[in-house]
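Z., the sequence and structure:
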Amino acid sequence: MNNSYTFPRELRLLTPKNFQNVFSNPVRASTPELTLLAVPNKLEHPRLGLTISKKNVKLACKRNRLKRIIRESYRLHQHQLPAVDIVAIGKKGIQDLDNPALHKMVEKLWRKLTRRYNG
């Protein structure tokens, strides 16, 4: 795959089965506001799934902002990530972070995840 920074369907977890697979026996990287779960996949690239529940983030516009920022960060870092399926789970308090803080936190988690796989 060339180094394009798009986010096509192949880079997403789409089915409940994909998500179940990640929840079965994942490697974790987390902060109090966000958890990344990852399992190796048989593809040449990472895939991302997002779950931010209404219980933790009430307003749809806030949930969408969080998903947009996490997706954007993933899009820019996808070429450094190992071939894993990743589920990002937003937790209480994540909506209180401003955009730069969120970007920084997500970036740190990508690095942590990559280290756990390659280290």
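The CA atoms of residues 26 and 38 lie 5 Å apart. The longest helix spans residues 99-118.

Let me know what you think.
H.
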